[in-house]
Amino acid sequence: MQPISFRGGEERTPDPKPRWNPRPEQIRILEAIFNSGMVNPPREEIPRIRMRLQEYDQVGDANFFYWFQNRKSRSKNKLRTGH
Amino acid sequence: MQPISFRGGEERTPDPKPRWNPRPEQIRILEAIFNSGMVNPPREEIPRIRMRLQEYDQVGDANFFYWFQNRKSRSKNKLRTGH
DNA sequence: AGTCTATGAATGAAAG
DNA sequence: CTTTCATTCATAGACT
Prior knowledge:
The structure is a homodimer.
Chain A: H1 24-35, H2 46-53, H3 61-77
The structure holds a DNA duplex.
């Protein structure tokens, strides 16, 4: 399943790929969305969520897509000892 | 009194977690497992490995996960400019 | 004591 | 979705 194509097919440019650093405000919003039950935001919701987060910083579609992926996966596996 | 250090003016998750201190016996066992070819033990093996190492100290699943992750990753690069 | 270095921990990004 | 890779942060321990 490939929800969104983030790389536009084949890679060609050696994109620098700076790592997105979510601020606490953004994390708070994302956590709120996640805890509201929307663990897999539908495609139509993405622009809406992005606009909401862009008040604090520029975020791409892939950024929070990955965020939700990791959030769900890691909360399920309960890999952390504490937290 | 919480000496949470700042990161260039941006606060990070104020999470005071004690870090696991592997003992020589544990490291010896882990290295043995690693050198036996099991560089990335499957999730199912981790509890087994943990039980084996718990003879020496309490360890969580995440500890091994991180250990193997770091061990594998850093065995390739002989460490960059330490941080 | 301060400084390095090694490494545990965390997580974004990506691969499978 | 699951698993792996890469980068980063924090800090214990070694060294000076």
